[in-house]
Specification:
Mean pLDDT: 78
Helix content: over 70%
Number of strands: 0
CATH topology of one domain: Serine Threonine Protein Phosphatase 5, Tetratricopeptide repeat
CATH superfamily of one domain: Tetratricopeptide repeat domain
CATH architecture of one domain: Alpha Horseshoe
Largest sheet: none
Strand content: under 5%
Length: 254
């Protein structure tokens, strides 16, 4: 029995020392967290980062303490580590038995989803919080805000779809107009070709007389040549007749 009591005595100082370290880390984390909240002009990620480290050290000593885990999740959220903070708040909501703490964890988890623009997840999580605390005004407001953003997002998507559809319709109409213009041009070209073909025989007929026409000088030369030929022919005929006449006379003299 003495050994048992001695063991308890020996363990007690160690437990107290760990508890003191745990509280020291928590106080340190709270200090840095408050420092980060003071500067409202900008986000003090350095102070919130130091708070995160201190809370993690406290949780190493006392992992089951949901309060320190809640503080850690808040520090992560303040650093815009929304994905990590959502996981921490979700873990708290599963483990904590108290409805008020569970609702608060769901509320902050919804905020983490909202920052990431995961609207469906944030809406579902806010609804979980309101099932536990139906009269929470902040959760109601955040839920309404998330639902409004969801409607705007759907409206933009629909507008984009309509724009895409209008563009497609415009492109189709332009293609149709281009095809019509091309067909008209082709028809005009065919008509012009047919007209040219119909004109060609007439042009040939008109051109033929023009090709047969001769100049006045050439015509006179040709007439003169014909007259000369005719004179020569007449002279030959006369000479032939004279020779025949002479022969006849000779025959008569015989």
């Amino acid at each position: 029995m003495k050994k048992f009591h001695i063991l308890i005595i020996l363990l007690l100082p160690s437990f107290l020392a760990l508890a003191q370290k745990e509280r020291k880390f928590v106080r340190e984390g709270n200090k840095w967290f408050e420092t980060g909240l003071k500067d409202t002009a900008k986000l003090d990620t350095v102070s919130f980062g130091k708070a995160e480290v201190a809370y993690r050290r406290a949780l190493e000593i006392k992992p089951e303490d949901h309060q320190w885990q809640f503080n850690l999740a808040d520090a992560l959220y303040k650093q815009k580590k929304a994905e990590e903070s959502a996981k921490e708040f979700g873990d708290i909501a599963e483990k904590t038995p108290l409805p008020a703490d569970k609702s608060m964890a769901f509320h902050n988890m919804g905020n983490s989803y909202l920052v990431q623009k995961k609207l469906d997840e944030s809406i579902a999580t806010y609804k979980k919080a309101l099932r536990l605390t139906p009269n929470d005004p902040e959760t109601k407001y955040n839920l309404a805000y998330a639902m409004k953003m969801k409607k705007e997002e759907e409206k933009k998507k629909q507008q984009n779809k309509d724009k895409d559809k209008d563009k497609k319709d415009q492109n189709k109409n332009q293609e149709k107009d281009q095809n019509k213009d091309q067909n008209k041009d082709q028809d005009k070209q065919k008509q012009n070709q047919n007209q040219d073909q119909n004109k060609d025989p007439q042009q040939n007929q008109k051109q033929q007389p023009q090709q047969n026409k001769i100049s006045k000088q050439n015509a006179e030369q040709m007439l003169q040549a014909l007259e000369n030929d005719e004179k020569q022919t007449q002279e030959k005929v006369k000479k032939a007749q004279a020779l025949k006449a002479g022969k006849r006379n000779v025959d008569k003299n015989w």
